[in-house]
Specification:
This protein is about 5% helix and about 45% strand. By secondary structure, the chain is mainly beta. It has four domains: about 10-130, no CATH class; about 175-275, no CATH class; about 280-655, Pectate Lyase C-like (3 Solenoid); about 660-729, Immunoglobulin-like (Sandwich). The chain has a 34-stranded parallel sheet that branches.
Length: about 725
């Protein structure tokens, strides 16, 4: 038969959840001469298997009625909606006809073989028809280049040769793309609609009315950022205008015209607004490479913040070289916040001067109209000796109900690692943080390192001066300062907790002028100091609790300075409790006098529940020492002493009590004299005796009670057993 010019392909057929029969109309010799392929809605193709997935019924006469029907699937669900099925010819590319020499020739066999060759050519044509082709008139070289990873194939600049194009080259084809959309409703008369942004050119737009796309330049135009229709859209019609543009490399665009889409549930905006949410010191030219002088950039940034009425300055990771003091002066409620990426990531390296650091200064004198200063996640280091205050928060006026200072997560120290104390090549701060007249402030997680061998006698980790009231210092470490924390002037209400003071001459000094109400609370701290752990002068209503005091030997050599764990001085000092602390010392100190608790001046002090111990050969000289002029003190019976030469000394103080309780048992009759195992130092205030048999109280001769014992007086007759409980001080 003749073979018509027919594509050896049927379909693709779209599934509808019911159809299972699919026809094809090209000639085949056998059921296996076709291939059935299905594809999912996502385009994933699967070649199906004859007699497993599908069956084929061929028409009886392939010459007059070529083709047949495919039944798919043989079992299971029909082809689903969204899926497709295609049928193509897959006749083998061979020539099975054998014509023997001298034999008879069958016209049918020869015609079938000719049909077979045409059918094979049609298969090739069908497959080639699905391939990429160049135009007939092109003269380009279409040979593919050698495979290259992460590259696409494209034409060269002359459109003459195919070449590999790296993906990185494609990524730079546009710096950014910005797309928007506007919606309008037609009213039958309006032809011009203002767009929220200018598409610049008509080619950047796609416009539709009620879902039908319009032709640019025919149905609509663009005039001065407005969409103009040739014919007014009908009343109630829905207009959708989508537009955008891509910026070529090297060009610039206004950040306000670039959309910012953060995600579902979050309001969209533009890039300019998003970038302005964070102000970086690098916006002012800071480099942060450790060698470029960034002083001007920081000064410009602070000037900008003050003029803007306050704000937050971000300091990205880097080392910023600073060569002079940075001063931030505010005269109203300009709240200034400086944040970095972490105390060991964002570092300000102060160099080449002796008066450095950052000085935050409020000149406002209006009540409750003061600024708030905040510094967090920064490191401040220096290579200059005695170079001033790393941070100084100064207020000319202190009457402010709001929090005034917040400093947290900071490292303040030298500009090199402290591998060894060579006393050269690095500097030190006179004071890590100084605060003047600040109320309701907090310093938290501060690591401040000084240099005891180089610092002057006034070096301090934190210095609170003036009327610095209601201050909290917590979770901090102070190493090698003269004084770890000093509270001075008329400061009131300071709370210090969970803080370590290591290798300092003085741990905490609370030196308050008379007339103030200088409350101080120190809880859960460690004082590893050479001279005094906590030194209070004129302090009132203060508590020192659950701390560890340690007389260190690292800072001095023989002759050692005298050491006191807690020293209370000042004639206005009163109402202070020293409770639940541990006092000890480092072996090696000799020739000095060591006092755990010294009530030196004042009144109304107590020392209870403390553990005081030395070592064999390195005893603590005095556990609790109360000096002449001190009055109304209590030393608890629950203090524990070990390797203490003198546990308690009253050197002329008045109204000093040592509450004690003694108990025991005795067998006796009326008039028996009971002697205490340990005499009361001052007085026995009461004795209670209980009869063992009847569990009733019996008489004790009141006049016989003394510091050494008492006389029992009972009427039970004969000898009896008694328990007694005696209290005194």
């Amino acid at each position: 038969m003749t073979i018509p010019s027919t594509a050896r392909r049927a379909g693709p057929y779209e599934g509808n959840d019911s159809a299972t029969s699919f026809a094809f109309n090209f000639k085949v010799f056998a059921e296996s001469d076709i291939q059935v392929t299905t594809a999912t809605a996502l385009g994933v193709e699967t070649v199906r298997v004859l007699d497993t997935d599908y069956s084929v019924t061929l028409n009886g006469d392939q010459d007059s009625s070529p083709g047949g029907t495919v039944t798919y699937p043989i079992s299971g669900d029909p082809l689903a909606t969204g899926e497709v099925l295609a049928i193509i010819g897959v006749l083998d590319y061979d020539q099975p006809l054998d014509l023997p020499s001298g034999g008879r020739f069958s016209a049918t066999a020869i015609e079938n073989e000719l049909d077979r060759m045409v059918m094979q050519m049609q298969q090739i044509r069908e497959e080639v028809g699905r391939a990429l082709r160049v135009s007939v008139t092109t003269g380009a070289d279409v040979e593919l280049p050698a495979p290259s990873a992460n590259a696409l194939i494209g034409w060269d600049s002359d459109a003459a040769t195919l070449t590999n194009v790296p993906l990185s080259d494609l990524a730079t084809a546009a710096s950014f793309a910005s797309y928007r959309y506007d919606t309008f409703v037609g009213d039958g008369s309006t032809t011009e609609f203002a767009l929220t942004s200018d598409p610049v050119t008509l080619g950047n737009m796609d416009v539709s009315i009620d879902g039908s796309t319009l032709v640019p330049g025919v149905d609509h135009t663009l005039t001065n950022g407005s969409l103009v229709f040739t014919v007014a859209p009908s009343d109630g019609s829905e207009i959708l205008a989508r537009y955008g543009s891509a910026l070529p490399p090297g060009d610039t665009a206004d950040a306000a015209d670039i959309s910012y889409l953060p995600g579902a549930g979050i309001a969209a905006g533009d890039v300019q607004s998003k970038l302005r949410e964070v102000l970086s010191v690098k916006d002012f030219g800071a480099v942060g490479d450790g060698s470029t002088d960034d002083t001007t950039a920081f000064n410009d940034a602070f000037t900008y913040l003050i003029a803007a009425g306050g704000g937050r300055l971000y300091v990205p990771t880097g080392i910023y070289k600073i060569t002079s003091k940075l001063t931030v002066t505010c005269n109203a409620q300009q709240h200034i916040s400086v944040h970095g990426d972490g105390p060991y990531l964002s570092t300000l390296d102060f160099q080449a001067d002796t008066d450095l650091g950052i000085h935050f200064h409020s000149t406002s004198v209006t009540d409750n109209q003061l600024p708030h200063f905040e510094v967090c996640d920064l490191g401040l280091i220096t290579s200059a000796d005695n170079c001033g205050n790393a941070l100084w928060f100064e207020f000319d006026h202190s009457n402010n109900i709001d929090a005034s200072v917040y400093a947290a997560d900071l490292f303040i120290g030298q500009n090199v690692d402290r591998v060894s104390d060579t006393l050269s090549g690095y500097g030190y701060w006179n004071t890590a943080i100084a605060v003047t007249n600040a109320r309701n402030g907090e310093i938290r997680n501060l690591h401040a390192y000084g240099e005891m061998n180089k610092s002057p006698a006034s070096s301090r980790g934190v210095f609170l001066d003036g009327e610095s009231t209601a201050f909290v210092i917590s979770d901090s470490l102070f190493l090698e300062f003269t004084t770890g924390i000093e509270v001075y002037g008329t400061s009131e209400g300071c709370y210090i907790n969970n803080t370590d003071v290591v290798y300092c001459t003085y741990g905490i000094r609370h030196n308050i002028a008379s007339g103030a109400e200088p409350q101080l609370t120190v809880v859960g701290c460690s004082m590893n100091c050479s001279n005094v752990g906590v030194w209070l002068y004129n302090s009132q209503q203060s508590v020192i609790a659950n701390c560890v005091f340690y007389a260190c030997a690292a800072l001095n050599t023989d002759p050692w300075p005298n050491w006191t764990g807690v020293l209370l001085q000042g004639t206005n000092g009163r109402f202070t409790k020293v409770i639940g602390n541990i006092f000890s010392m480092e072996a090696g100190r000799t020739g000095d006098t060591r006092v755990a608790i010294d009530f030196n001046e004042g009144r109304c002090y107590s020392a209870t529940g403390n553990h005081i111990f030395g070592f064999s050969g390195y005893e603590i000289d005095y556990g609790v020492y109360i000096r002449s002029g001190v009055s109304n003190c209590v030393v608890g019976d629950d203090n524990i002493f070990e390797y203490v030469t003198t546990e308690f000394t009253n050197a002329g103080a008045t109204s000093v009590r040592q509450p004690r309780i003694q108990s025991g048992s005795v067998t006796g009759t009326t008039g028996v004299v009971v002697t205490f195992d340990n005499a009361f130092p001052n007085e026995c205030t009461s004795v209670i005796a209980i009869h063992n048999g009847t569990n009733t109280a019996v008489n004790v001769t009141a006049s016989s009670v003394s510091t050494t014992g008492f006389t029992l007086n009972h009427n039970s007759g004969g000898s009896s057993d008694f328990y007694y409980l005696a209290t005194g001080n």
